C-alpha cells in the first residue's frame, strides 16, 4: 500500500494506523497548495478531489476519505482491536467517534487554516472548537484511556491528529485536562513517534 499525505494533516491518522499494523508500506508527500507530489507528479491524477489522504492499493485501486481508509487498513489486516468487527456495538461506537471527529471537530478547525479570515471569525472558530473539546473532555472524564474504552482504535488516531492542531491555532488544551492527558498518551505511542519522524515533525 502507498499513502499520499501532507505533514501534520488529517492524513497523519492513516499514517499512524499503517505503523500500528506493522506491515510494509510506502508514503509520498503531497503539496496540498500546488497539488504536486515529491516525485513531481500531479496529485489531481491520483485523487480528483485534491485532498489527502489517498491510499493506493496493490492492484492500483485508489481509496480516498480518511475514515474509509482507516477502517480499510484495520479490516484488511484483521486488526479487530483497531476496528472491531462489523455489526457489533463496539464497531458502531468507533464509527460514531470517527463521524464526530470528521463532521464536527475537523470542520470546526477549518476556518483557522483558511487565509483571509478576520480575527473575529478566528475567535468564533476557536470557541466552536472549544465546545467540541468540551464534549470529548466529558467522554474521557470517566477514566477511560481511549475514546471508546480501554483499546486504542482508528478513531483515536484521527482524534489525536485533529486535537493536536490546537498547538498551531492558539488553543491551549489546559482547559481540558483529560483531553490533554489523552493527547499526550497517544503522542507517546511508538506508531505516532515513527509517523512524526517520517513526516519531518519530530
UniProtKB/TrEMBL annotation:
CDD domains: GST_C_Beta, GST_N_Beta. NCBIfam families: PRK10542.1. It comes from the Bacteria. Residues 1-81 form the GST N-terminal domain. InterPro entries: Glutathione-S-Trfase_C-like, Glutathione-S-Trfase_C_sf, Glutathione_S-Trfase, Glutathione_S-Trfase_N, GST_C, Thioredoxin-like_sf. Pfam families: GST_C, GST_N_2. Gene3D superfamilies: 1.20.1050.10, Glutaredoxin. This is Glutathione S-transferase. GO terms for molecular function: transferase activity. Keywords: Transferase. Residues 87-202 form the GST C-terminal domain. PROSITE patterns: GST_CTER, GST_NTER.
Amino acid at each position: 500500500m502507498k499513502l499520499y499525505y501532507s505533514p501534520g494533516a488529517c492524513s497523519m491518522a492513516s499514517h499512524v494506523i499503517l505503523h500500528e499494523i506493522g506491515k510494509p508500506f510506502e508514503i509520498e508527500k503531497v503539496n496540498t497548495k500546488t497539488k504536486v507530489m515529491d516525485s513531481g507528479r500531479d496529485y489531481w491524477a491520483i485523487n480528483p478531489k485534491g485532498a489527502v489522504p489517498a491510499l493506493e492499493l496493490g492492484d492500483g485501486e485508489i481509496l480516498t476519505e480518511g475514515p474509509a481508509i482507516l477502517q480499510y487498513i484495520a479490516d484488511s489486516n484483521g486488526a479487530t482491536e483497531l476496528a472491531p468487527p462489523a455489526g457489533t456495538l463496539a464497531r458502531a461506537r468507533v464509527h460514531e467517534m470517527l463521524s464526530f471527529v470528521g463532521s464536527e471537530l475537523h470542520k470546526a478547525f477549518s476556518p483557522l487554516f483558511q487565509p483571509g479570515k478576520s480575527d473575529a471569525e478566528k475567535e468564533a472558530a476557536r470557541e466552536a472548537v472549544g465546545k467540541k473539546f468540551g464534549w470529548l473532555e466529558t467522554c474521557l472524564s470517566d477514566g477511560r484511556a481511549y475514546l471508546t474504552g480501554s483499546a486504542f482504535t482508528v478513531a483515536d488516531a484521527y482524534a489525536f491528529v485533529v486535537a493536536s492542531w490546537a498547538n498551531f491555532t492558539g488553543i491551549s488544551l489546559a482547559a481540558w485536562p483529560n483531553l490533554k492527558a489523552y493527547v499526550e498518551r497517544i503522542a507517546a505511542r511508538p506508531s505516532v513517534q515513527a509517523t512524526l519522524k517520517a513526516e519531518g515533525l519530530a
